[in-house]
Every structure is written in structure tokens, then in C-alpha cells.
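Model it.
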Amino acid sequence: MTKGTVVMVLDCGGGTVDITIHKLTCNPDEKFLCEELLPSSGGCEWGSKYVDLHFERFVADFFGEELF
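Modeled.
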């Protein structure tokens, strides 16, 4: 990454997903520095256990409850 690169970081936990956006403010050969453009935000119903639940519902609907 070079100076000025903007990255989004997604921290996907079991119950939440936290999203931050940072901008690299140094060159690759310098000490790592970045600026936070968007502080941590997210939702309490976006975590992996909710993804699992919705996927299981999809599979049950697709194949039918009996096969699921």
C-alpha cells in the first residue's frame, strides 16, 4: 500500500460486525501511521451467528424442512 491508500476494515465476530475506514498517511518505508476516517460502527445483528441463522433458513426453504 502507498501513502493515501484508503482501507475498510471489517471485524466480523459472532454477534457483531464492526466497520472502520482508515487512510494511510505514511510511505511504505516509514513508521506505520494512519488516519481514522470513519470510527468503528456496526450492528448487533450483523454477526456471523446471524449469517448462519439466515443461511440455515435459506437451506430449509430451498430443500424443504423434511430434507433439512
